Amino acid sequence: MIKKEEVYKIGLFNKPHGIHGELQFTFTDDIFDRVDCDYLVCLLDGIFVPFFIEEYRFRSDSTALVKLEGVDTAERARAFTNVEVYFPVKYAEEVGDGELSWNFFVGFRMEDTRHGLLGEVAEVDTATVNTLFVVEKDGEELLVPAQEEFIVGIDQRRKLITVELPEGLLNLEDLDAEDTDCPV
């Protein structure tokens, strides 16, 4: 059985394409094209299930058409509509430095050199120009810029990212509290 810590999310199957079982795939990481791994993992009914890739072709820099082994009709492909797609961590770790996507680090713990443990990376927010790690600790969310210049070290074995964040970045709530005490 595949466990959540053995995979990381790389995209979503959107809808069938054509009548031969092809699926439209929107991805955030093209790792499936850069390493030698012939399967993707889909989250079906809460279970991670591997599917071998027969073929794929890119439509843009973030979409591809994928044909999975055993999915040969549009009806069968419809079962994959809006299904999350994951990639095995063990193959992603073989990629050279600088080629991993930020999504690979979901599930890693993050610590700052001055402030200690910040929490666990729950997701990566790419909705704005600046990519952010969403770090959760004790039910609170902390947004940390995903920038190489802040990363001091990455320990893949321990799933730990060490960062050195600029002074004041983590004290935003303290600054807001001081502003409310100022007379107008």
From TrEMBL:
Residues 10-88 form the RimM N-terminal domain. GO terms for molecular function: ribosome binding. It is found in: Cytoplasm. Residues 102-169 form the Ribosome maturation factor RimM PRC barrel domain. It comes from the Bacteria. GO terms for biological process: ribosomal small subunit biogenesis; rRNA processing. Keywords: Chaperone, Cytoplasm, Ribosome biogenesis, rRNA processing. InterPro entries: PRC_barrel-like_sf, PRC_RimM, RimM, RimM_N, RimM_N_sf, Transl_B-barrel_sf. GO terms for cellular component: cytoplasm; ribosome. NCBIfam families: 16S_RimM. Belongs to the RimM family. An accessory protein needed during the final step in the assembly of 30S ribosomal subunit, possibly for assembly of the head region. Essential for efficient processing of 16S rRNA. May be needed both before and after RbfA during the maturation of 16S rRNA. It has affinity for free ribosomal 30S subunits but not for 70S ribosomes. The PRC barrel domain binds ribosomal protein uS19. Binds ribosomal protein uS19. HAMAP family: Ribosome_mat_RimM. This is Ribosome maturation factor RimM. It comes from Bacteroides finegoldii. The gene is rimM.
